[in-house]
Amino acid sequence: MKTIASTISHHMVHHKVATNNFSEDNKLGHGGFGVVYQGKLANGQVIAVKRLSKGSGQGDREFKNEVLLLAKLQHRNLVKLHGFCLEGKERLLIYEFVPNKSLDYFIFDPIKRTQLDWERLYNIINGIVRGLLYLHEDSRLRIIHRDLKASNILLDNNMNPKISDFGLARLILVGQTQGNTEKIVGTYGYMAPEYAMFGKFSIKSDVFSFGVLIIEIITGQKVTGILHEQSTEDLLMEDLLSFVWRNWREGTIINIIDPLLNSSSQKEIMRCIQISLLCVQEKVVERPTMATIARMLNSYSVSLPLPLEPASVIAGKPGSHSISDMQSGEDSERIIRSSQSKNISANEDSSDEL
User: Fold this and answer.
1) What is the pLDDT of residues 236-263, one digit of tens each?
2) Where are the alpha helices (DSSP H) in the chain?
3) Which position has the higher pLDDT, 219 or 32?
4) CB-based burial of residue 145 (10 Å sphere; 0-12 exposed, 13-18 middle, 19+ buried)?
5) Whole-number Å distance between alpha carbons of 159 and 232
6) Using CA atoms, how far apart are residues 346 and 50, in angstroms rounded to an integer?
7) What's the mean pLDDT in 286-305?
8) Residue range 61-75: average pLDDT?
9) Do the beta carbons of residue 33 and residue 56 sit within 8 Å?
10) Of 25, 185, 261, 266, which residue is most buried, by most CB within 10 angstroms?
């Protein structure tokens, strides 16, 4: 990593040349902590450069966290960190360039969705499982991502998934089952209820987020979207997890599957829906581990338990807040701070502590 980092410092005339002085034309996207640009080194290597927001203490923590973690992690389903640059107030993270943007770019667009048949989607799901299994169990470390969502799944030339954005990830000791934090970070809709309400996170928090992600992939609907008007006078909204659960329980699950998906794959799709509902159960102990999920996906001889009712995406408890009160913008990060009264506040920036 040092070699590439020094190469970047040398050839960028301090990083600006590679990105054409951080031109808008080279902008790939942005998140809570900064903007990502496409760049090219003097040797022709294409890179992605995340330029963190200046003067943000949150950005400093995210920068340090991502460098320390990704320097030690190597897996084909994780985005690769090539290096980093620090100069004055500039903080840059340099990644491999992943050409096909992120998963949300495809699955929530009715036109672009047609490029992803079930075979490709199933491959993406399996790749995410392999990446999470590596983070949770197979690497030298035990990492909880804490911000798994469609926009943090990048897709390479062959539409293979790469988990990205480790700024909010937490390292826990091997043998440690969970951690606690007073500052709760992540994205509304993907956060497990025990984390959103009480600050308790574990590998099962990522499992919850993964379950939400599968449901979004199969339905083509955002977890934060408004789905269902139960009354024209009193607008009571049904969240996505409840909607899927109700249809699964009533035997009408075919109603929630995106019609674009191949009907010949229905058995596989139904199995994935059941796995997703197991992942989003409110009780942590009832959710499977990623190792169990991998076995469920790869062997029909593994029988699936019947899922219990899922947690509500609204802070884990029905009726605590209306969806309209907590509607998130596209790819926006949220902070939920726990207090004795369990009041919820949402902001556009995330914060964390190392």
Assistant:
1) 457 899 999 999 999 999 889 998 887 7
2) 2-11, 57-70, 103-107, 118-133, 193-198, 203-219, 240-249, 266-279, 290-298
3) 219
4) buried
5) 42
6) 25
7) 94
8) 84
9) yes
10) 185
Residue 50 to residue 121: CA distance in whole angstroms: 27
Mean pLDDT of the region 179-189:
73
Structure letter (DSSP) for residue 352: -
Q: Which two tokens stand for residue 151?
A: 């926009």
User: What is the phi/psi pair of residue 259, to 5°?
Assistant: -60, -20
Contact yes or no for 290/130 (Cβ under 8 A): no
**pLDDT tens profile 6-36:** 444 444 434 544 554 555 667 776 665 678 8
Instruction: Name the amino acid, one letter, at 129.
Output: V
Whether 335 contacts 183, CB under 8 Å: yes
The type of residue at 132 is L
**Residue 104 appears among annotated catalytic residues:** no
Catalytic residue, from 60, 104, 147, 239: name it.
147
Report whether 304 contacts 271 (CB < 8 A): yes
